[in-house]
């Protein structure tokens, strides 16, 4: 069985695919918004520290478990702990979480596709008008974009790990890096950009409090695609010639650099538009920033580069974020696909179809929860607020559950799978690991303070969100 499993063709292919998963809406939009409202470089420093101190060990734990067991998350937990063990619930969580994240991410990716097509077809002016976003998400056109995106994603996944995911990442990721750099350089040459750069890079530590620290950790976790079963699954396609620790460090470095550059692109762009930008406007959610605020900013560029120039800039930006979202979306959908293939022995095609059917219904329910259906729009109430179906998915699977999944994986790897087996796996393809500082650090961290911190974050989020 294991020798039939697909593998990434090369080290570069694996790193680009994993970076493709990591680099997503979280980096390009979530990070700049959070940095803007939480002290700029002060947030950046805390974020980067969490990436190294907390996220990297978890990343290695996930990848090593996947490569050792050659399975999807559910299969991986069961392969180590046995089918009847309670640990299998950890596996189920690591399978259900990505499935549900994929549902809301599909909705966002559909909107990005719609905005890209809108900007390319010269609609920037309409897109920048107040109220456009609300109309756009409630118009039937979103279903057309949904069908297009679903087919594109289905075709990629049906082509497999090597010919679908790896090939896509090899084309899109380099294009994404180039676009990001070109757009950033362009923005930096515009008048007033330096005000934004200063706002971003001069740290304001007075904004730091426990909530911001919590936010930085959740942001880092989401951005690196941790707790979603993705790296367990991708680990299962990594050849034994590769170093897990080296791959994880590369992916974290790429992901953090992209987040950094996204800040350098978005914040100055905002200040070019309006040097006296009211930073309160930045504190709104990432969603309203991308879909309501940024089109306004892009349109304002027409004073400098004309309407065509502004439309080109907007098109390039939405294409950039769309590419990033697409490579993330295929990575997360590969998790349930590999579960169908491993556990139910479905063919790849059958797995893609089965997944499309299950996820498709939930995506439609999410799409209509912005007003088209009152049942899904006013789905439940808790903590004194009415929540839509889409909100509930976000609250549970984006805001809350990832640290819990991270907590479980740490305990599982260290206390059930055992450190020695973990270390043996880490040493495969990496002779230097055994004597490295990385080994000492990761072993200590995974068994002690990392799970403790993750549990703390999970419990405090549950208390804040749901009570
Ligand atoms: N790291 C991704 C991001 O920043 C998170 C993600 C991965 C979300 C895969 C959905 C699917 O956007």
UniProtKB/TrEMBL annotation:
<feature type="transmembrane region" description="Helical">
    <location>
        <begin position="39"/>
        <end position="61"/>
    </location>
</feature>
<feature type="transmembrane region" description="Helical">
    <location>
        <begin position="92"/>
        <end position="117"/>
    </location>
</feature>
<feature type="transmembrane region" description="Helical">
    <location>
        <begin position="396"/>
        <end position="415"/>
    </location>
</feature>
<keyword id="KW-0813">Transport</keyword>
<keyword id="KW-0472">Membrane</keyword>
<feature type="transmembrane region" description="Helical">
    <location>
        <begin position="352"/>
        <end position="376"/>
    </location>
</feature>
<feature type="transmembrane region" description="Helical">
    <location>
        <begin position="444"/>
        <end position="467"/>
    </location>
</feature>
<feature type="transmembrane region" description="Helical">
    <location>
        <begin position="250"/>
        <end position="273"/>
    </location>
</feature>
<feature type="transmembrane region" description="Helical">
    <location>
        <begin position="293"/>
        <end position="326"/>
    </location>
</feature>
<feature type="transmembrane region" description="Helical">
    <location>
        <begin position="171"/>
        <end position="195"/>
    </location>
</feature>
<dbReference type="Pfam" id="PF00209">
    <property type="entry name" value="SNF"/>
</dbReference>
<dbReference type="GO" id="GO:0016020">
    <property type="term" value="C:membrane"/>
</dbReference>
<protein>
    <submittedName>
        <fullName>NSS family neurotransmitter:Na+ symporter</fullName>
    </submittedName>
</protein>
<dbReference type="InterPro" id="IPR037272">
    <property type="entry name" value="SNS_sf"/>
</dbReference>
<dbReference type="InterPro" id="IPR047218">
    <property type="entry name" value="YocR/YhdH-like"/>
</dbReference>
<feature type="transmembrane region" description="Helical">
    <location>
        <begin position="12"/>
        <end position="33"/>
    </location>
</feature>
<feature type="transmembrane region" description="Helical">
    <location>
        <begin position="215"/>
        <end position="238"/>
    </location>
</feature>
<keyword id="KW-1133">Transmembrane helix</keyword>
<feature type="transmembrane region" description="Helical">
    <location>
        <begin position="137"/>
        <end position="159"/>
    </location>
</feature>
<dbReference type="InterPro" id="IPR000175">
    <property type="entry name" value="Na/ntran_symport"/>
</dbReference>
<keyword id="KW-0812">Transmembrane</keyword>
